[in-house]
From TrEMBL:
It holds the Pfam family T2SSF. The chain crosses the membrane at residues 6-23, 95-115, 121-139, 260-284, 299-317. Keywords: Cell membrane, Membrane, Transmembrane, Transmembrane helix. It is found in: Cell membrane. InterPro entries: T2SS_GspF_dom, T2SS_GspF_sf. This is Secretion protein F. Residues 42-61 are annotated as: Disordered.
Length: 325
């Protein structure tokens, strides 16, 4: 009896991890970043500028929308590689080590399930789901936490840059201050930025490399602001100060959305945990009442169908309450 319950719980965990990987959209499509990139990366040649000026506002708007749709289509086609996932998580990419760990994890889960229920097909399925889904879930969890910390500290870094530029310091010296005093992951990433600039790369090229490690909208906005300032000139301190204000407003909006969606998250958590919770309480209070669900083949089929539907419902609720900005 207890063995069957353990098999059901273990199957639900591995199915949930596999479903997370299959439905996770990685970094997602960020319309604001794509819009800024499409505008900032326009060809500056005189002929194209003249052609763009001759267009009506409606034609220019349609052209920008077409560029955005094309970039989003390419974004959907592109898939994150394992190397990129490990880089985002702050781990030195090592595919051999990753596959070894995944294989060991899959074998351990397969053996554990086989010992609980001697069924080779079930054991292989559980081992595959665990070996394929759990390591990727861990990488996604680590990358998400790392990006949240970077986004939280990034406006303060912009304030340091603004004050340094206003006091007469070159931007490279202000970046060194952030690299020296910033907390991880902000400080180490800015130290890599300093090293890349010292190695002969331009600041835009170094920021593009940094974006490959920390793919956040805030960092891309910063890169675009610097690229536009280098091409057109202007007051960089004022531009960075405005960007810092915008990023703080985005943070406040995210917190507001989080507060407004907390009720939906709590409801989804209760709904998702209610069926297994009730089943466990019934088993503890009246085991004979629920034992037929695990001993009768029809009950086992009903439990399997219930697990699948529960997984689909949880993933659907996750998509509905996961607001991205």
């Amino acid at each position: 009896m207890l063995t069957t319950i353990l098999i059901a719980v273990l199957s639900f965990i591995v199915l949930a991890s596999l479903g997370y990987v299959l439905t996770s959209d990685g970094n997602g499509s960020q319309v604001a970043v794509k819009r800024a990139q499409a505008i900032a990366s326009a060809d500056p040649s005189r002929a194209k500028r003249q052609k763009s000026q001759n267009r009506t506002p409606e034609e220019r708007r349609k052209q920008i929308m077409l560029q955005l749709k094309e970039s989003e289509r390419q974004e959907r086609k592109a898939r994150l590689t394992l190397t990129a996932r490990m880089t985002h998580a702050g781990i030195t990419p090592n595919l051999t080590r990753f596959w070894i760990i995944s294989g060991i994890l899959g074998v351990v889960f397969a053996i554990g399930v086989f010992l609980l229920k001697p069924n080779a097909l079930v054991a292989l399925g559980a081992g595959f789901a665990a070996g394929y889904g759990l390591p990727r879930w861990v990488l996604g969890f680590m990358a998400g936490g790392r990006q949240k910390k970077f986004t939280r500290d990034f406006p303060d870094a912009l304030d340091i840059l603004t004050r340094g530029i206003k006091s007469g310091l070159p931007i490279h010296d202000s970046i060194k201050v952030i690299a020296r005093e910033g907390a991880a992951p902000l400080g180490p990433e800015f130290q890599r930025l300093v090293d890349n600039i010292g190695g002969g790369r331009t600041i835009i090229e170094a920021l593009d490399i940094m974006y490959d490690r920390i793919p956040t909208a805030e960092l891309k906005f910063f890169t675009i602001v610097l690229a536009i300032q280098q091409k057109t000139g202007g007051n960089l301190a004022e531009a960075l100060n405005n960007l810092s204000t915008v990023l703080r407003a985005r943070k406040m909006m995210r917190e507001k959305v989080k507060a407004l969606s907390s009720e939906a998250i709590a409801s989804a958590s209760i709904i998702g945990s209610l069926p297994p919770g009730v089943a466990i309480m019934i088993f503890l209070s009246r085991p004979d009442y629920i034992r037929v669900m695990f001993t009768d083949p029809r009950g086992q089929m009903m439990l399997a169908a219930g697990l699948v539907w529960m997984l689909l419902g949880i993933l659907s609720m996750r998509k509905m309450i996961n607001f991205k900005m």
